[in-house]
Design brief:
The complex is a heterodimer of chains A (237) and B (321).
Chain A: E1 19-27, E2 33-42, E3 47-51, H1 58-65, E4 73-78, E5 81-82, H2 88-95, E6 98-101, H3 113-122, H4 128-141, H5 157-169, E7 175-179, H6 187-202, E8 206-210, H7 214-217, E9 223-228, E10 231-235
Parallel strand pairs in A: 3-8, 3-9, 6-7, 7-8
Antiparallel strand pairs in A: 1-2, 1-4, 4-5, 9-10
Helix pairs in contact in A: 3-4, 3-5
Chain B: H1 6-10, H2 12-17, H3 37-75, E1 77-82, H4 90-103, E2 107-112, H5 115-120, H6 123-126, E3 139-145, H7 153-163, E4 168-171, H8 174-216, H9 218-226, H10 231-270, H11 275-284, H12 290-320
Antiparallel strand pairs in B: 1-3, 1-4, 2-3
Classes of the chains: A alpha/beta (237), B alpha+beta (321).
InterPro entries (chain B): FtsX
Region (Disordered) (chain B): 1-28
Keywords (chain B): Membrane, Transmembrane, Transmembrane helix
Chain lengths: 237, 321
C-alpha cells in the first residue's frame, strides 16, 4: 500500500496534509536506526491508530511530529511547513496547533488539575477569566469536576490520564497526538475516551492514537499505521 | 469543541446539580515551583550578600557625611598665626592683625587665643606643668567666615604680610580640606567597589541557582514547550520566580542592615558619655547614617532583587538556546 495515498481522510484529499513524512530515518546518536524510510501523510480531519510492538518506534515517531527531535534524514513537514531549520517562534506556533497526551501524562505536580488543564491557554497569556468556564466544563465532562483542586500526585492513574487528555483538548488543536491514552483506564472509560476523540475528529481535528490495544482499535473502522522493525505499513481504509 | 461537551450542556438536570465554581479554586500558581530547599538557600545567600553590601554602603555613607561635616566646619574658619619676632611686641602685632582681619570683607568674627590658650594647645605634645614662658610660642587668631559670599582671603593675606612682614601668616586649611576630600572620595570609592563586587557575587550565585533550577525543572520546561509556551514566556516564568526570591532575600538583608545601623546609632548615643564614645563621636559624628543612608540601603535591596531577576532571565534564555 502506497503511503502517500493512504491519508486516512474522511473528506476529499484536496487539502494540504497536516503531517507529511518523506523517507524519514531516525537514530539516536550512533545507535541503530529506530525508523527507516518512513513515508506517510496525515490528512486534515483524519483519524488513525499508530500501532506496533513495544520498542518499534511509536513514541519516536510521535516526537518527530511534535518537533521535539529532528530526523536524521528525510523530510518532515507539519501544517505545510518543512521543519528543518525552523525558527523557535514558528515552532511554538506549530505546537500551539497540536495537542498531545503523553504515555506518562507529564502533568506538573505542583499545579492543581485545573491549572494543568488550563496550561495551554495560560501560556498563550489569555486572561484566566476568559477560559475558566471552558476548563471547568471540560473537567466535568471527563469526570474530574470534583478533583479540580487536587494536585496530580493525589490523582489515580485513570484520573491523571483524563487530566492529560483534557489538557490536550482544551486549546481545540488541529492535530491530536495521543500516546497510549487508554493504557491506565478501565475498558468502559477507554471506550468513553475513544468516543471523545472521535467526536473531536468529527469536529475537524486530525487524531493519531498510538496504542497496543487491539480491542480498542477494533471498535473503530480507521486507518492503522503499523510500525515494525523501524518500518511503517499502513492498513485499513 | 462545544459539541464535544454538548452532552453535559444538554442534560439540564445534571447541569442544575453541578456545583458552582469553587471560590477558593487556585488558578494562577507560579509555573516554576518556588518553595524548595534550593530556593530558600538562594534567598538566604541573597539576604546575606545584600546585608553585607548595605552595611558597606552605610559605612561609606557615614565616612563621607562625616568628612563633609568636618570639611564644612573647617572651611568656615581660617587662622592667622603671629610668630614672635625679634624686638617686636607680639601683643601689639596680635591686636594689629585682629583689626586688619575684622576690617576685611567676609569676616564675621575673630577670636584671639590668649597666651595661656596657645600654650595649652601644646600640652598634648609637650605635657602639662611646663613653664613655656621662655619659648617663642606663636599666637593664633581664629577668624569666622560669613556663609554668604566668598571672602577675599588673598587680599587679607597681602594686607597682613604688608603690615606685619615675616611675622603674620594666614592659613586657610586648603591642605587639610584637600586631604579630607581625598579621604572621603577614597571611602566612597571603596564602598562603591565593595557594593559592586557583592552585587556581582549575587549575580553569579543566581546564575548557578538558575542553571540548577533549569536542570531540576527540565520536565516542567519540556511540558511548557509542548503546550505552546515560547522561550520568552518560560524565561519570564523563571524571572518572576527569581525576582520574588530576590525581593525576599533583598528585603531581609536590607531590613537587617537598617536594624543594625539603627541599633549601632542607639548604642553609640548610649555610650557617648564615656571617653570611647567621645572618640567615636569625634570620628564618626553621631554614628547616624541619616535618611540618605537609609535610602541607600533600601536601594541596594531593590537593586539586588532586580539583579536577581535580570540575571535569571538571561541565564534561562542562554540555557534554552
Amino acid at each position: 500500500m502506497s503511503a502517500g495515498k493512504n491519508t486516512g481522510s474522511l473528506l476529499s484529499g484536496a487539502e494540504e496534509p497536516v503531517v507529511r513524512f518523506e523517507s524519514v530515518g531516525m537514530r539516536y546518536g550512533l545507535g541503530p536506526e529506530i525508523l527507516s524510510d518512513v513515508s506517510f501523510e496525515i490528512a486534515p480531519h483524519s483519524f488513525q491508530f499508530l500501532t506496533g510492538p513495544s520498542g518499534a518506534g511509536k513514541t519516536t515517531l510521535l516526537r518527530l511530529i511534535l518537533l521535539s527531535v529532528r530526523p536524521t534524514r528525510g523530510l518532515v513537514s507539519v501544517f505545510g511547513k518543512e521543519v528543518s531549520g525552523i525558527s523557535n517562534n514558528a515552532l511554538t506556533g506549530l505546537r500551539r496547533r497540536m495537542g498531545v497526551v503523553f504515555q506518562d501524562f507529564r502533568l506538573l505536580d505542583h499545579l492543581t488539575t485545573y491549572e494543568n488543564v488550563a496550561l495551554p491557554l495560560r501560556v498563550q497569556e489569555r486572561a484566566e477569566a476568559s477560559y475558566r468556564a471552558e476548563v471547568v466544563e471540560l473537567l466535568r465532562w471527563v469526570g474530574l469536576g470534583e478533583r479540580m483542586h487536587v494536585l496530580p500526585p493525589l490523582l489515580s492513574g485513570g484520573e491523571k490520564q483524563r487530566a492529560a487528555i483534557a489538557r490536550a483538548l482544551i486549546a481545540r488543536p488541529e492535530l491530536l497526538l495521543a500516546d497510549e491514552p487508554t493504557g491506565n483506564v478501565d475498558p468502559s472509560l477507554a471506550r468513553r475516551l475513544l468516543r471523545l476523540f472521535m467526536e473531536l475528529n468529527r469536529l475537524g481535528t486530525s487524531v493519531v492514537i498510538a496504542t497496543h490495544d487491539y480491542s480498542l482499535m477494533d471498535l473503530v473502522e480507521a486507518r492503522r499505521m503499523v510500525l515494525s522493525d523501524g518500518r511503517l505499513r499502513v492498513e485499513g481504509p | 469543541m462545544s459539541d464535544v461537551r454538548s452532552p453535559a450542556q444538554g442534560d439540564a438536570a445534571r447541569s442544575a446539580a453541578e456545583p458552582p465554581l469553587p471560590a477558593n479554586l487556585r488558578r494562577n500558581a507560579p509555573l516554576v515551583p518556588t518553595d524548595s530547599a534550593a530556593s530558600r538557600a538562594l534567598a538566604a545567600v541573597i539576604a546575606i550578600l545584600t546585608f553585607l553590601a548595605a552595611l558597606c554602603a552605610g559605612a561609606a555613607e557615614i565616612a563621607v557625611s562625616s568628612a563633609g561635616q568636618w570639611q564644612s566646619s573647617v572651611a568656615q574658619e581660617v587662622t592667622i598665626q603671629i610668630r614672635p619676632g625679634a624686638g617686636r611686641d607680639i601683643e601689639a602685632d596680635v591686636k594689629r592683625a585682629e583689626s586688619i582681619a575684622r576690617a576685611a570683607q567676609g569676616i564675621v568674627g575673630a577670636r584671639v587665643f590668649s597666651k595661656g590658650e596657645a600654650e595649652r594647645l601644646l600640652e598634648p605634645w609637650l605635657g602639662s606643668g611646663l613653664d613655656l614662658s621662655d619659648l617663642p610660642v606663636p599666637r593664633l587668631i581664629a577668624l569666622t567666615l560669613s556663609d554668604d559670599g566668598q571672602p577675599d582671603l588673598k587680599a587679607l593675606r597681602t594686607s597682613l604680610t604688608e603690615a606685619l612682614p615675616g611675622v603674620a601668616s594666614l592659613d586657610d586649611h586648603a591642605l587639610w580640606l584637600q586631604r579630607l576630600s581625598t579621604m572621603a572620595n577614597t571611602f566612597a570609592g571603596i564602598g562603591i567597589g565593595i557594593v559592586v563586587l557583592v552585587l556581582l557575587a549575587t549575580g553569579l550565585a543566581v546564575v548557578f541557582a538558575t542553571r540548577g533550577a533549569m536542570a531540576g525543572n527540565r520536565e516542567v520546561v519540556e511540558v511548557l514547550h509542548f503546550v505552546g509556551a515560547d522561550d520568552d514566556y518560560i524565561a519570564k516564568a523563571f524571572q518572576s520566580r527569581f525576582f520574588r526570591l530576590g525581593l525576599r532575600g533583598g528585603a531581609f538583608g536590607a531590613g537587617a542592615a537598617l536594624l543594625t545601623c539603627a541599633l549601632a546609632g542607639l548604642l553609640a548615643r548610649m555610650s557617648r558619655s564615656g571617653p570611647t564614645g567621645e572618640e567615636i563621636e569625634a570620628l564618626f559624628g553621631t554614628f547616624q547614617i541619616g535618611w540618605r543612608g537609609y535610602a541607600l540601603i533600601v536601594l541596594i535591596g531593590v537593586i539586588a532583587s532586580l539583579v536577581t531577576a535580570t540575571v535569571s532571565r538571561f541565564t534561562v534564555r542562554r540555557f534554552l538556546r
